[in-house]
């Protein structure tokens, strides 16, 4: 079969993320990926600026990750987790408990980021049932994104996630104004007024606060002041409310700390991990909580935590996640992420002066260029591919979250391509 026919088949029969079957945007066929390079079917090489949505932190086809997968496959690819345990899950959970704050010591493994959010929501609800209190509301932040499943959508920004579309299905939760102070701005206490007010007025109903630490990702790539997060923790303590920290996008070094909540020197009560957990090789997520929450859940009428997916604790995913963390523990990532931050600052910050650009934000291995005009995704994507780079903007945001192993000249090429793209009016919608 001609490879072109595959495109036609794909367009007609396969949904891609947030895509239309009627007028699908062009998709590029990648046949191989290694290090920081993606190879298209025609042999064209693209430098990767996305890490497959913040997952492939060590780059693609990593020999140690590949070996961990192969070694596990030889033993067993999967085994049910009900009534059975296995060494890869035990070693991974030991490791997760070791690298996260002392208070977090009970791990629930699941399939994806969204599911780990569902699990965290359920944990919070069951915790209050265990305390014979019926609390069912969550307090989230505007511009937040926590996933695409229904409970997760109910805590996503009401505008971005089109809550109206799901009216009747989504629970009504509280949304505080998002922080406006950037990471490096002077802190303004007024930023926290709305959160404080909602908490004071409604704390008796609130089961948990949920927040993306430091970076609000898919809701707008907003990098906010650590003081906001610190105050969120203080208010949760003041009113005895659970704090769920969603580190799915930020975990494993992306912001320059192993976990972004470390910028605010706080600890979560429930922590959600995903994406980079397996170095971008397999789908796996973890929801980690305290002994107290875990044990209170078991006091509830159900006597147990009511969740148990078929592929829970998949051995291949656990084995590769463990190796991913082992690689991180040689601590090379710290220097790599610092270097990326310096280069992104050097190449992207000057774009702030351009009339097309409303803001540039940098933290760790994250570089965000916000434009005034809406981006024509298909046109800009084509432009980037012609330049030999893989960058996937959305809305008014062109952002880079490259693998930590990216070389200086590759990073330069990515940033130069962004500068060129901005100059081309065809890449924007008037
Ligand atoms: C902060 C955050 N939470 C949750 C999710 C959902 O994860 P998944 O796409 O693995 O379901 C994402 C995905 O982008 C995310 O960025």
Automatic annotation (TrEMBL):
On this chain, the residues bearing N6-(pyridoxal phosphate)lysine are 275
Q: Which Pfam families match?
A: Aminotran_3
Which positions bind substrate? 53, 145, 275, 308, 392
Q: What reaction(s) does this enzyme catalyze?
A: (8S)-8-amino-7-oxononanoate + S-adenosyl-L-methionine = S-adenosyl-4-methylsulfanyl-2-oxobutanoate + (7R,8S)-7,8-diammoniononanoate
Record keywords = Aminotransferase, Biotin biosynthesis, Cytoplasm, Pyridoxal phosphate, S-adenosyl-L-methionine, Transferase
EC number of the protein: 2.6.1.62
Residue(s) at site: Participates in the substrate recognition with KAPA and in a stacking interaction with the adenine ring of SAM: 18
Localization (cell): Cytoplasm
**Annotated pathway, please?**
Cofactor biosynthesis; biotin biosynthesis; 7,8-diaminononanoate from 8-amino-7-oxononanoate (SAM route): step 1/1
Domain of life, per the record?
A: Bacteria
Q: Which family does it belong to?
A: Belongs to the class-III pyridoxal-phosphate-dependent aminotransferase family. BioA subfamily.
HAMAP family from the xrefs? Answer: BioA (MF_00834)
The protein's name is Adenosylmethionine-8-amino-7-oxononanoate aminotransferase
Q: Which organism is it from?
A: Candidatus Pantoea edessiphila
């Amino acid at each position: 079969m001609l490879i072109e026919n595959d495109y036609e088949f794909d367009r007609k029969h396969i949904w891609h993320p947030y895509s239309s079957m009627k007028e699908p945007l062009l998709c590029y066929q990648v046949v191989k990926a290694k290090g920081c390079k993606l190879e298209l079917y025609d042999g064209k090489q693209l430098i990767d600026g996305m890490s497959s949505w913040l997952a492939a932190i060590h780059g693609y086809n990593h020999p140690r990750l590949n070996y961990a997968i192969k070694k596990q496959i030889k033993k067993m690819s999967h085994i049910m987790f009900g009534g059975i345990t296995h060494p890869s899950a035990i070693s991974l959970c030991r490791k997760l408990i070791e690298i996260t704050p002392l208070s977090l010591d009970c791990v629930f493994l699941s399939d994806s980021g969204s599911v780990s959010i569902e699990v965290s929501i359920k944990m919070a609800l069951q915790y209050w049932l265990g305390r014979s209190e019926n609390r069912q509301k969550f307090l989230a932040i505007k511009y937040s994104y926590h996933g695409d499943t229904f409970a997760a959508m109910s805590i996503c920004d009401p505008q971005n996630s089109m809550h109206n579309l799901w009216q009747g299905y989504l629970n009504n939760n509280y949304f505080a104004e998002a922080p406006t102070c950037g990471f490096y701005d002077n802190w303004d206490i007024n930023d926290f007024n709305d959160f404080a007010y909602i908490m004071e007025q409604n704390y008796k109903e609130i089961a948990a606060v949920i927040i993306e630490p430091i970076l609000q990702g898919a809701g707008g790539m907003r990098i906010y002041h650590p003081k906001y997060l610190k105050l969120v923790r203080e208010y949760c303590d003041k009113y005895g409310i659970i704090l769920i920290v969603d580190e799915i996008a930020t975990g494993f070094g992306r912001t320059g700390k192993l976990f972004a909540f470390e910028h605010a020197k706080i600890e979560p009560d429930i922590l959600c991990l995903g994406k980079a957990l397996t170095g971008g090789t397999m789908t796996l997520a973890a929801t980690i909580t305290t002994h107290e929450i875990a044990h209170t859940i078991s006091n509830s009428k159900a006597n147990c935590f009511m969740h148990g997916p078929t592929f829970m604790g998949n051995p291949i995913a656990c084995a590769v996640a463990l190796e991913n963390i082992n690689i991180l523990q040689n601590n090379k990532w710290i220097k790599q992420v610092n270097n990326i931050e310096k280069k992104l600052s050097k190449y992207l910050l000057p774009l702030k002066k351009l009339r097309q650009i409303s803001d540039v934000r940098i933290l760790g291995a994250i570089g965000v260029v916000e434009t005034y005009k809406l981006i024509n995704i298909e046109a800009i994507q084509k432009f980037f591919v012609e330049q030999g780079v893989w960058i996937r903007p959305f809305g008014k945001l062109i952002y880079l979250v490259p693998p930590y192993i990216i070389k200086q000249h590759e990073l330069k090429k990515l940033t130069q391509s962004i500068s060129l793209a901005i100059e081309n009016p065809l890449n924007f919608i008037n």
